[in-house]
Write a structure and sequence with these properties.
Helix content: 25-40%
Number of helices: 6
Number of strands: 11
Structural class: alpha+beta
Strand order of the largest sheet: 1-2-3-9-7
Distance between the termini: 47 Å
Protein backbone atom coordinates (compact mmCIF):
# COMPACT_ATOMS: atom_id res chain seq x y z
CA UNK A 1 0.00 0.00 0.00
CA UNK A 2 1.28 3.46 -0.84
CA UNK A 3 0.66 5.95 1.91
CA UNK A 4 -0.06 9.39 0.61
CA UNK A 5 -1.14 12.75 1.94
CA UNK A 6 -4.66 13.86 1.22
CA UNK A 7 -4.87 16.32 -1.62
CA UNK A 8 -7.59 18.80 -2.49
CA UNK A 9 -10.24 17.72 -5.00
CA UNK A 10 -12.14 20.99 -5.05
CA UNK A 11 -11.27 21.73 -8.70
CA UNK A 12 -12.14 18.22 -9.87
CA UNK A 13 -15.39 18.15 -7.90
CA UNK A 14 -16.46 21.53 -9.25
CA UNK A 15 -15.64 20.43 -12.76
CA UNK A 16 -17.61 17.21 -12.35
CA UNK A 17 -20.64 19.08 -11.03
CA UNK A 18 -20.56 21.63 -13.84
CA UNK A 19 -20.28 18.93 -16.49
CA UNK A 20 -23.10 16.98 -14.89
CA UNK A 21 -25.42 19.96 -14.99
CA UNK A 22 -24.53 20.83 -18.58
CA UNK A 23 -24.85 17.29 -19.89
CA UNK A 24 -27.72 16.17 -17.73
CA UNK A 25 -30.54 18.10 -19.36
CA UNK A 26 -30.01 16.56 -22.78
CA UNK A 27 -29.53 13.00 -21.61
CA UNK A 28 -32.15 12.54 -18.91
CA UNK A 29 -35.21 13.13 -21.06
CA UNK A 30 -34.47 10.46 -23.68
CA UNK A 31 -33.66 7.81 -21.09
CA UNK A 32 -36.34 8.62 -18.52
CA UNK A 33 -38.20 5.30 -18.77
CA UNK A 34 -34.99 3.31 -18.30
CA UNK A 35 -34.01 5.44 -15.34
CA UNK A 36 -37.43 4.96 -13.70
CA UNK A 37 -37.02 1.19 -13.94
CA UNK A 38 -33.49 1.43 -12.57
CA UNK A 39 -34.65 3.64 -9.69
CA UNK A 40 -37.26 1.09 -8.67
CA UNK A 41 -34.69 -1.70 -8.69
CA UNK A 42 -32.27 0.48 -6.74
CA UNK A 43 -34.75 1.31 -4.00
CA UNK A 44 -35.58 -2.37 -3.60
CA UNK A 45 -31.94 -3.23 -2.88
CA UNK A 46 -31.70 -3.87 0.89
CA UNK A 47 -27.96 -3.13 0.88
CA UNK A 48 -28.59 0.51 -0.04
CA UNK A 49 -28.61 3.13 2.71
CA UNK A 50 -31.23 5.87 2.32
CA UNK A 51 -30.02 8.93 0.42
CA UNK A 52 -29.70 12.33 2.06
CA UNK A 53 -28.33 11.34 5.48
CA UNK A 54 -24.62 10.86 4.81
CA UNK A 55 -21.86 13.11 6.15
CA UNK A 56 -18.67 11.77 4.54
CA UNK A 57 -16.49 13.78 2.17
CA UNK A 58 -15.39 12.59 -1.27
CA UNK A 59 -11.82 12.28 0.02
CA UNK A 60 -13.07 9.83 2.66
CA UNK A 61 -14.04 7.27 0.00
CA UNK A 62 -11.23 7.81 -2.50
CA UNK A 63 -8.04 5.90 -3.18
CA UNK A 64 -4.96 7.97 -3.95
CA UNK A 65 -1.98 7.04 -6.10
CA UNK A 66 1.14 9.03 -6.82
CA UNK A 67 3.92 8.83 -9.36
CA UNK A 68 6.73 11.30 -9.91
CA UNK A 69 4.58 13.34 -12.29
CA UNK A 70 0.92 12.88 -11.30
CA UNK A 71 -1.41 12.21 -8.41
CA UNK A 72 -4.49 10.11 -9.10
CA UNK A 73 -7.75 10.01 -7.22
CA UNK A 74 -10.11 7.06 -7.75
CA UNK A 75 -13.68 7.23 -6.41
CA UNK A 76 -16.21 4.38 -6.79
CA UNK A 77 -19.58 5.76 -7.87
CA UNK A 78 -21.65 2.86 -6.63
CA UNK A 79 -24.80 3.98 -4.79
CA UNK A 80 -23.86 1.86 -1.78
CA UNK A 81 -20.84 4.13 -1.39
CA UNK A 82 -21.89 7.58 -2.56
CA UNK A 83 -25.13 7.59 -0.54
CA UNK A 84 -22.92 7.83 2.54
CA UNK A 85 -21.50 11.16 1.34
CA UNK A 86 -22.84 14.56 2.32
CA UNK A 87 -25.99 15.29 0.34
CA UNK A 88 -24.55 17.94 -2.00
CA UNK A 89 -21.67 15.67 -2.96
CA UNK A 90 -23.96 12.67 -3.36
CA UNK A 91 -26.33 14.63 -5.61
CA UNK A 92 -23.45 15.89 -7.78
CA UNK A 93 -21.94 12.44 -8.28
CA UNK A 94 -25.30 10.72 -8.80
CA UNK A 95 -26.27 13.24 -11.47
CA UNK A 96 -22.88 12.90 -13.11
CA UNK A 97 -23.37 9.15 -13.55
CA UNK A 98 -26.92 9.57 -14.84
CA UNK A 99 -25.85 12.27 -17.30
CA UNK A 100 -23.52 9.71 -18.91
CA UNK A 101 -25.80 6.73 -18.47
CA UNK A 102 -26.28 6.09 -22.19
CA UNK A 103 -22.51 5.91 -22.76
CA UNK A 104 -22.02 3.68 -19.71
CA UNK A 105 -24.79 1.31 -20.77
CA UNK A 106 -23.52 1.22 -24.37
CA UNK A 107 -20.03 0.22 -23.17
CA UNK A 108 -21.56 -2.48 -21.01
CA UNK A 109 -23.64 -3.88 -23.88
CA UNK A 110 -20.64 -3.97 -26.22
CA UNK A 111 -18.82 -6.12 -23.70
CA UNK A 112 -21.70 -8.32 -22.61
CA UNK A 113 -21.79 -6.82 -19.10
CA UNK A 114 -25.04 -6.42 -17.17
CA UNK A 115 -23.88 -4.53 -14.07
CA UNK A 116 -20.90 -2.30 -14.85
CA UNK A 117 -18.88 -0.71 -12.07
CA UNK A 118 -18.10 2.97 -12.56
CA UNK A 119 -15.28 5.02 -11.03
CA UNK A 120 -14.49 8.72 -11.18
CA UNK A 121 -10.77 9.10 -11.90
CA UNK A 122 -8.85 12.37 -11.70
CA UNK A 123 -5.23 12.93 -12.73
CA UNK A 124 -3.51 15.92 -11.10
CA UNK A 125 -0.22 17.16 -12.58
CA UNK A 126 2.72 17.63 -10.20
CA UNK A 127 5.04 19.16 -12.79
CA UNK A 128 5.05 20.76 -16.22
CA UNK A 129 4.24 18.59 -19.21
CA UNK A 130 3.18 15.70 -17.00
CA UNK A 131 2.10 12.79 -19.16
CA UNK A 132 -0.39 10.12 -18.10
CA UNK A 133 -1.58 6.87 -19.64
CA UNK A 134 -5.32 6.31 -18.98
CA UNK A 135 -5.36 2.64 -19.98
CA UNK A 136 -2.77 1.74 -17.37
CA UNK A 137 -5.21 2.12 -14.47
CA UNK A 138 -6.65 -1.24 -13.37
CA UNK A 139 -8.63 -2.71 -10.47
CA UNK A 140 -7.75 -5.89 -8.57
CA UNK A 141 -10.66 -7.65 -6.85
CA UNK A 142 -11.22 -11.23 -5.70
CA UNK A 143 -7.91 -12.36 -7.22
CA UNK A 144 -8.91 -10.95 -10.62
CA UNK A 145 -7.50 -8.04 -12.58
CA UNK A 146 -10.09 -5.77 -14.18
CA UNK A 147 -9.14 -3.52 -17.07
CA UNK A 148 -11.46 -0.67 -18.09
CA UNK A 149 -14.09 -1.50 -20.68
CA UNK A 150 -14.39 2.17 -21.56
CA UNK A 151 -13.09 5.55 -20.48
CA UNK A 152 -15.52 8.46 -20.80
CA UNK A 153 -13.61 11.77 -20.71
CA UNK A 154 -15.12 14.64 -18.73
CA UNK A 155 -12.30 17.14 -19.33
CA UNK A 156 -11.18 18.80 -22.58
CA UNK A 157 -7.57 18.10 -21.58
CA UNK A 158 -8.12 14.35 -21.24
CA UNK A 159 -7.33 13.39 -24.82
CA UNK A 160 -4.03 15.26 -24.72
CA UNK A 161 -2.76 12.82 -22.09
CA UNK A 162 -0.49 15.61 -20.91
CA UNK A 163 -1.03 18.28 -18.26
CA UNK A 164 0.77 21.36 -17.08
CA UNK A 165 1.53 21.71 -13.40
CA UNK A 166 -1.64 21.90 -11.24
CA UNK A 167 -3.94 21.06 -14.14
CA UNK A 168 -6.43 18.20 -13.77
CA UNK A 169 -8.07 15.76 -16.14
CA UNK A 170 -11.15 13.75 -15.16
CA UNK A 171 -12.99 10.78 -16.65
CA UNK A 172 -15.46 8.05 -15.83
CA UNK A 173 -13.97 4.55 -15.97
CA UNK A 174 -16.38 1.74 -16.79
CA UNK A 175 -15.38 -1.73 -15.57
CA UNK A 176 -17.11 -5.07 -15.88
CA UNK A 177 -19.17 -6.70 -13.17
CA UNK A 178 -17.37 -8.73 -10.55
CA UNK A 179 -15.61 -5.95 -8.63
CA UNK A 180 -16.68 -6.42 -5.00
CA UNK A 181 -16.84 -2.91 -3.55
CA UNK A 182 -17.94 -4.13 -0.13
CA UNK A 183 -14.79 -6.26 0.12
CA UNK A 184 -11.14 -5.17 -0.06
CA UNK A 185 -9.86 -4.34 -3.53
CA UNK A 186 -6.87 -2.45 -4.91
CA UNK A 187 -6.14 0.09 -7.61
CA UNK A 188 -2.94 0.03 -9.62
CA UNK A 189 -1.41 2.42 -12.12
CA UNK A 190 1.76 1.37 -13.96
CA UNK A 191 4.03 0.37 -11.03
CA UNK A 192 2.16 1.90 -8.08
CA UNK A 193 -0.84 0.52 -6.21
CA UNK A 194 -3.12 1.34 -3.31
CA UNK A 195 -4.97 -1.30 -1.29
CA UNK A 196 -6.31 0.98 1.44
CA UNK A 197 -9.94 0.17 0.63
CA UNK A 198 -9.97 -2.28 3.53
CA UNK A 199 -9.52 0.65 5.93
CA UNK A 200 -12.10 2.73 4.07
CA UNK A 201 -14.62 -0.09 4.46
CA UNK A 202 -14.50 0.41 8.25
CA UNK A 203 -15.37 4.08 7.76
CA UNK A 204 -18.22 3.11 5.44
CA UNK A 205 -19.57 0.56 7.91
CA UNK A 206 -19.61 3.12 10.71
CA UNK A 207 -21.25 5.77 8.54
CA UNK A 208 -23.85 3.31 7.24
CA UNK A 209 -24.93 2.55 10.80
CA UNK A 210 -25.16 6.28 11.54
CA UNK A 211 -27.17 6.94 8.38
CA UNK A 212 -29.67 4.22 9.25
CA UNK A 213 -29.99 5.59 12.78
CA UNK A 214 -30.59 9.14 11.51
CA UNK A 215 -33.14 7.94 8.95
CA UNK A 216 -34.97 5.89 11.59
CA UNK A 217 -35.10 8.85 13.97
CA UNK A 218 -36.43 11.04 11.15
CA UNK A 219 -39.33 8.66 10.54
CA UNK A 220 -40.46 8.66 14.16
CA UNK A 221 -43.54 10.82 14.86
Amino acid sequence: MIRQRRWSTRTAASEALLLALLAGAGTWGCAQAQQDDRAVATEQDPSLPPAGYGTLRQDDVSLQLRTQTVRIQVVPLDERVIRLLANDTYTSLHRLVESRREEIDAAARRNGVQNPTVFLVTFFALEREARFTPDELNIGSQSRLFRPLAVIPLSPLWNNQQLNQRETATALYVFGDGIQLLDPFLVEYVVVRNDAWEQILRVLDGERASVLARATADRKP
